[in-house]
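DATA SHEET
Item: assembly model
Revision: 1
Owner: S.N.
Input lines:
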Amino acid sequence: MLQLRGIHKTYHDGESELEVLAGVDLELPAGRSIALLGASGSGKSTLLQIAAGLERPDRGTVTVLGQVLGRLSERDLARLRRRDLGFVFQSFNLLPGLDVADNLLFQRRLNRLPDQDDWVRELIDGLQLATLLHRPVEVLSGGQQQRVAIARALAHRPRLVFADEPTGNLHDTLSRQVMKMLIRLVDEAGSALLLVTHNRALAQMTHARVRLAGGRLHAEPESTPEPVSA
Ligand SMILES: Nc1ncnc2c1ncn2[C@@H]1O[C@H](COP(=O)(O)OP(=O)(O)OP(=O)(O)O)[C@@H](O)[C@H]1O
């Protein structure tokens, strides 16, 4: 589903250089979810942007659904993103001037999917959006906007979902609810999920965890039981 090979990225800022990614390899098959952990500034968002084709690596290849992103035209890349990818980023990028329902259905309509089906109803229920559907997105609270952004990202049942701290503004119960919907999409539709989170409990809900440090990915040791005190 997603394959990263030898990804390098260095940012240049005047005289100084910052090597953020120094040879990252990652394999994310269909039906699997991976949590990407790492200290603030370690390059998680950069890696996600590159994997999603929103930024180009200096070196290395990104393959999504068998297609090498660097070889796609802008048009084909845009089509791949619209049809097969779902993004939940820290900035919600909702469409002002439209209500919640129109925002939620935007990408489904671009893909000529019907407005209603069981999955859309489930998203509206699970993310508690039923009473908000006809409100303009501008008047929503941060947490409400985040829920709309999540529903919109998942509404067309993308095959590959990138989520960068998707539950930052939500309380614990709703965070777990969001994660459950993401995991269900992975389990039932055979999609794949790459999740950036600082939240350990949410990271434990994915199939595997990797940590970005020193520009490279390291397998995260599975948590060991507490030692028994004497
Ligand atoms: N466009 C850019 N130009 C220059 N430097 C950048 C750019 N984007 C990111 N950086 C730098 O690259 C490093 C990695 O940033 P990134 O946002 O990928 O980290 P992160 O692990 O996602 O951090 P956080 O957990 O705080 O969101 C940081 O030092 C950041 O300042």
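QC remark: The CA atoms of residues 145 and 204 lie 25 Å apart.
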